[in-house]
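Anyone able to model this chain together with zinc ion?
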Amino acid sequence: MEEIIESTENLQLCSLCKTEIELDSVFCGSCGFPENGTDQQVNIFHRRLSFNKNQKREADKKIKSARNTLYVLAGITILFSTIQFFSHQDTATLITGFILGVIYILLGSWTSKKPLMAVLLGLLLYVTTIVISAIVEPQTIIKGIIFKIIIIAYLTKGVFSASSIKN
Ligand SMILES: [Zn+2]
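re: yes, here you go
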């Protein structure tokens, strides 16, 4: 009994995360806060904490941009296949467009877990669809070429942005 009382007297709460730490230990074992450290150690800790927060914010921004790229592509794909359907009664394009659109949306939601992989697969899928349509109908490569270049540039930017995220 006496031993237990003695051991609780040797403990204090970390002022940052409220974890119990021993009086003679400088740093909190849970969050790393220098509870019994010098002012300089406390300053360094706070500086590092805000640096990490900034890095996380930057990474979140990049993931969000990669996600938006894929959602925009999904929207454009579905929109164009719908237009194609109403102007040419092209059911095959409509179905393909909707399937591709759903895949881009799924890839977009996957960016929260694997941003680089998701946006890279999106880019590959988009380039593949252009190549396949060009093989089936060579004149399609010219159709909306500026649009295609913009989307590819946008996705490539997303790939570079996602690849620059530090874990
Ligand atoms: Zn702590």
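The chain has a mean pLDDT of 87.
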